[in-house]
């Protein structure tokens, strides 16, 4: 399953945007309002839970300075990644698009497609004010 957020424009340089997203504790400010738990486990790993959903642990798997950050599932039964692609438009403007990729059976994909789409859209939208 491959889902993408709308592309958002941020009034910060690609470097500033990359640095913000590289620090996993900053993801707390991007979370939807229905978050019930957020906890930094290590400097590159955090746990979060949304009301009515199981806890999810994400770990920074890859970082390409100023252009890409990949977070992946750290344990659990589901294997997926969340990628932030960052493009510099001007010295003080950048664009970010989030991509969610995961291998799920058809039934699971049907159940989680809506909530995951809404989740990554919220993360992207919240970037415009949080960064």
TrEMBL record:
InterPro entries: START-like_dom_sf. Gene3D superfamilies: 3.30.530.20. It comes from the Bacteria. This is SRPBCC family protein.
């Amino acid at each position: 399953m491959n889902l993408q957020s709308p592309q958002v424009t941020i009034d910060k340089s690609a470097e500033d945007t990359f640095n913000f997203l590289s620090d996993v504790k900053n993801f707390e400010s991007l979370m939807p309002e229905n978050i019930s738990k957020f906890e930094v486990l290590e400097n590159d790993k955090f746990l979060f839970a949304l009301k009515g959903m199981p806890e999810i642990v994400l770990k920074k798997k890859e970082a390409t300075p100023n252009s890409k950050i990949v977070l992946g599932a750290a344990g659990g039964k589901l294997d997926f990644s969340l990628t932030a692609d960052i493009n510099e438009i001007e010295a003080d403007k950048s664009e970010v698009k989030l991509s969610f990729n995961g291998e799920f059976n058809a039934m699971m994909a049907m159940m989680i497609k809506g909530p995951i789409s809404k989740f990554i859209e919220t993360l992207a939208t919240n970037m415009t004010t949080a960064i």
